[in-house]
């Protein structure tokens, strides 16, 4: 018996990995957060699978499911939205599994920040603009952000910022960012990236709050900020330049 922490991806059922889909197709018990994982992803499950929505279960109740599965000798897939390594609340589950001698394995998934970049048609790292991506969030009731990781401090790097679950705090976020980023810095909101109801709004830090109703972006919103989101012509990477030689390709003469 084993527990598999599987990244469901950002929402679209065909953005789960092949390994994740294969495990879902064979699992007798599948646990998922119904508030975050769309039902379409569950189409990969076997017809007779026991599907358990964990949205209403606390940690101990979830552990009881694992214990029951061990007694029955059946595997469990614990389906997490995006990638389990990012804001997945998996560490506390793994610690309890280890204490109880239950083996587990992690299967990575497509994160919502990369799905948001895809929805925008943007590369988040561009030469001489930004070579760093900061993934963060703002404090919420469930998990406060350490003071040393406060958004105002991270913004000082002026890297590409991807702020998870950012909708309710947009006014505060914009205020903190304007202390370091210019008012014309591009900002984009992507709600439910890759879902059928996906929404996108692009603007600048100076204009964003005048263009939207914050109340309409409360849930499942990714906020991306940085000059890398500027669609204007920029410096091109040397990687594919005809004049750039490396072990797999010679430089073209005269380039």
TrEMBL record:
Protein name: Precorrin-4 C11-methyltransferase
Biological-process GO terms, alphabetical: cobalamin biosynthetic process; methylation
A Gene Ontology molecular function term of the record: precorrin-4 C11-methyltransferase activity
Ranges for domain Tetrapyrrole methylase: 2-207
UniProt record similarity statement: Belongs to the precorrin methyltransferase family.
Listed PROSITE patterns: SUMT_1, SUMT_2
S-adenosyl-L-methionine in keyword set: yes
Keyword DNA-binding part of the UniProt annotation: no
Recorded superkingdom: Bacteria
Pfam families: TP_methylase
Keyword annotations of the record: Cobalamin biosynthesis, Methyltransferase, S-adenosyl-L-methionine, Transferase
Pathway of action: Cofactor biosynthesis; adenosylcobalamin biosynthesis
């Amino acid at each position: 018996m084993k527990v598999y922490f599987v990244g469901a991806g950002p929402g679209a059922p065909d953005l789960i990995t092949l390994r994740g889909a294969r495990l879902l197709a064979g699992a007798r018990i599948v646990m998922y957060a119904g508030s975050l994982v769309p039902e379409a992803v569950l189409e990969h499950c076997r017809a007779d699978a026991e599907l358990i929505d964990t949205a209403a279960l606390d940690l101990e109740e979830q552990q009881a499911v694992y214990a029951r599965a061990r007694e029955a000798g059946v595997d469990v897939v614990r389906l997490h939205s995006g990638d389990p390594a990012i804001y997945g609340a998996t560490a506390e589950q793994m610690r309890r599994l280890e204490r109880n001698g239950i083996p587990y394995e992690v299967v990575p998934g497509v994160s919502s920040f990369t799905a948001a970049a895809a929805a925008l048609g943007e590369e988040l790292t561009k030469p001489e603009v930004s070579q760093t991506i900061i993934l963060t969030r703002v404090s919420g009731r469930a998990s406060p952000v350490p003071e040393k990781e406060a958004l105002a401090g991270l913004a000082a790097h002026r890297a590409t910022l991807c702020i998870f679950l950012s909708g309710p705090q947009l006014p505060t976020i914009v205020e903190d960012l304007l202390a370091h980023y210019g008012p014309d810095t591009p900002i984009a909101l992507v709600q439910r990236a890759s879902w059928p109801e996906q929404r996108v709004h692009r603007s600048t830090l100076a204009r964003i709050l005048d263009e939207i109703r914050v109340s309409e972006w409360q849930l499942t919103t990714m906020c991306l900020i940085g000059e890398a989101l500027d669609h204007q012509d920029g410096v091109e990477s040397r990687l594919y330049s005809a004049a750039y030689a490396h072990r797999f390709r010679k430089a073209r003469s005269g380039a």
